[in-house]
Amino acid sequence: MNRRKCRFCQAQLNVSFVDLGLSPLSNAFTELGKINGGNRFYPLHVYVCEQCFLVQLEEFESPQDIFGEEYAYFSSFSESWLQHAKEYVDNMIERYSINSSSKVVEIACNDGYLLQYFKERNVPVIGIEPAGNVAEEARKKGIPVVSDFFGEKLAELFVARGEQADLIIGNNVLAHVPDINDFVKGLKRLLKDGGLITIEFPHLLALIQENQFDTIYHEHFSYFSLSTVQKIFSYHGLTVFHVEKLLSHGGSLRIYARHKQDFSRSTTTTVDEIIKLEKAKGLQDIETYRLFFQQVEKTKRNILAFLIQLKNEGKRIVGYGAPAKGNTLLNYCGIRSDFIDYVVDINPYKQGLLLPGSLISIYEPERIRETKPDIIVIMPWNIKEEVMEQMSYVHEWGGEFAVFIPNPKVLKL
After folding, report:
1. DSSP type of residue 380
2. Which segments constitute the C-methyltransferase domain (predicted)?
3. CA-CA distance, 413 to 410, in Å (whole number)?
4. Which of 26, 55, 330, 355 is the most exposed place for a label (fewest CB within 10 A)?
5. Which structural domain, as residue segments, surrounds residue 386?
6. 303/326 Cα distance (integer angstroms)
7. 241 and 380 inside one domain
8. Per-residue pLDDT tens for 278-327?
9. How far apart are the first and last CA of the chain?
10. In terms of domains, do 257 and 207 share one?
């Protein structure tokens, strides 16, 4: 235990947050002909630092191994996420005068889902994306992409080329960074004087309150409260001056940060308000973290009871979506094809493969229309309304939708 140290403050990690047993990498999909090769499983055990309250996993595989040349997640397959990105771009141009004279850099730009909207408005952009296959999709949209991992070293290369940023964007990337100090140092170095950083990340408070344990997987190294993020940014010379609550990913925060010595933007009341809320909800009390696992264990029992009852009633159950969160849940609960016949996913990259660990087959969405199952479990519960609208035809044969998180239930229209 003593060898585990906090990746921010280096304090020893002695307090367990949740232990989800052994699990494979959540995007390590298996080819049909390679079942005998199996998956490599790692402990999915999360700890919390008693000093800074950073919730974190040990690093078993490097980001290079996880994200490398091939990555299975493409942001543009979600219509609601594209709309979220477009609204952000419109807002930044209007509120912060981002224009054709600005330089916008997005870290983990994925397939260009967001930068394409800046490009349409003639704003110069650069993407940073280590996964070769998704970076290539961004380049097809005319977006210049640097295929590398971000940190202080890469930031120095940008500075040497005279490419410091007026706006740095990082959506759902902070959790994927094992060396959080190097990452934030890079942000500080890359940002122009008077520049602006926006970072979006799932809020730890939502994870605890909404029982979102399935958002824990090996590709996520850390889970953040605002108070912890504020400490990390402040330590590296950056000030969080504004925060917005978002509905995305089950409850996220978007922070706005600037150089500490830049007083052109004053700190809004939103920062103190959310930190006070976190304190009131126990995020600065170590006992809050100790109790979370009991809640997760109860949910596991409820999910299995829910599935057993449906199967005993003769229901045919399938899954919609093959997201990372779904793989965490299936493996922790021991759910295989004896409960869920198959899953479908709109991403062609995943179709024809098997889910990691559970080895449940993945098909194209049309499979549901062909087989007419009774229950469709929506694995990406954060976009359940979008999925239900897309798949509304299942009611033609009496099909119903269900979710497992925060608790298992059949959804009512």
Report:
1. -
2. 248-406
3. 10
4. 55
5. 287-410
6. 13
7. no
8. 999 999 999 999 999 999 999 999 999 999 999 999 999 999 999 989 99
9. 48
10. yes
User: Residue 346 — left, alpha, or beta (φ > 0 → left; ψ -120 to 50 → alpha)?
Assistant: alpha
Number of other CB atoms surrounding residue 348 within 10 Å: 10
Q: Are residues 256 and 319 in the same domain?
A: no
40 falls within a domain: no
Write the CB contacts of 239 (distance below 8 Å, at least 6 apart in sequence).
Answer: 233, 257, 258, 259, 260, 262, 267
pLDDT, tens digit, for every residue of 224-248?
999 999 999 999 999 999 999 998 8
How many C-beta atoms surround the C-beta of residue 316 within 10 A?
15
Q: What's the rounded Cα separation, in Å, for the pair 57 and 64?
A: 17
pLDDT tens digits, residue range 131-143?
888 899 999 999 9
Token readout for 118 is 């800046």
Q: What stretches of 256-323 show up as alpha helix (H) in DSSP?
A: 269-280, 286-312
DSSP 8-state assignment for residue 411: P
Instruction: Say if 20 falls within a structural domain.
Output: no
Averaged pLDDT of the chain: 93
- Rounded CA-CA distance 198/364 in Å is 35
